[in-house]
Write a structure and sequence with these properties.
YefM-like fold; alpha+beta
Length: 89
């Protein structure tokens, strides 16, 4: 992450945007205080849950991206009783 003042960010705006687009967040300071962060649009979409449908969320699932196949089929096992409070003797 690179930190720039507002003036530096203004003067190097094209570079700031290009670096953010490459996945390098750019921190912008005002009067020495961290004020804003410039990130790529892809990173913004990934972090922003507003406006995403459930299907978009499921398709963006990191497990799926890495080719891990999960068996999500429902089990047909018979339920069994469990004594949670020690009442059965």
């Amino acid at each position: 992450m690179k930190t720039l003042s507002i003036l530096e960010g203004k003067n190097k705006f094209s570079q700031v945007v290009a670096s953010a687009a490459k996945g390098e967040p750019q921190i912008i300071t005002k009067n020495g205080k961290e004020t804003a962060v410039v990130i790529s649009y892809e990173e913004f979409r990934r972090r922003s849950s507003a406006g995403r449908s459930l299907s978009e969320f499921m398709l963006d699932n990191p497990v799926r991206k890495h080719g891990i196949d999960l068996d999500l089929s429902r089990s047909n096992d018979v339920d069994r009783e469990i004594d949670l409070f020690g009442d059965d003797d």
